[in-house]
Design a protein that fits this description.
By secondary structure, the protein is an all-alpha fold. The protein has 6 helices and no strands. The protein starts with a helix and ends in a 21-residue tail after the last helix.
Length: 127
């Protein structure tokens, strides 16, 4: 309820809601962002024992890391991550084997799926 009211009336939180709606989020998702922001505001007010001032909040947002620097950090993390190359001879788990078989069967054409009359399943009892 608080987030709904702030979206309608608060001049500081209304643009946050509309920015996230513009990014393609649904109403409830954007409202969740506003709720999270409200919780951070409440935490800041309670922990610092001072009143809320949106100018301080905007000044703190200006201290954020610029976007090009974030991209550099992402690239650095990508190079630090160790990924093993794919190895055909490596053993795989039973579950992975089942998944691979199911995937291969789903890729078979419909002509290959036609049951041959000479080959019958063993669990069918003929009367």
């Amino acid at each position: 309820m608080c987030a709904n009211n702030t979206v309608l009336k608060d001049a500081h939180l209304k643009p946050i809601y509309h920015r996230h709606r513009g990014k393609g989020k649904s109403h409830k998702q954007a409202l969740g962002v506003v709720m999270h922001k409200l919780l951070r505001i409440i935490w800041g007010v309670l922990s610092s024992e001072t009143g809320y001032d949106h100018a301080v909040d905007q000044a703190n947002q200006q201290k954020k890391i610029p976007a090009p620097q974030k991209d550099a950090q992402r690239q650095e993390m990508a190079t630090k991550r160790r990924e093993q190359p794919f190895d055909e001879a490596a053993p795989i788990s039973r579950i992975a084997t089942k998944k691979r078989k199911a995937y291969q069967l789903s890729q078979v054409s419909s002509a290959d799926q036609v049951r041959d009359l000479e080959v019958r399943p063993k669990n069918i009892i003929e009367v």
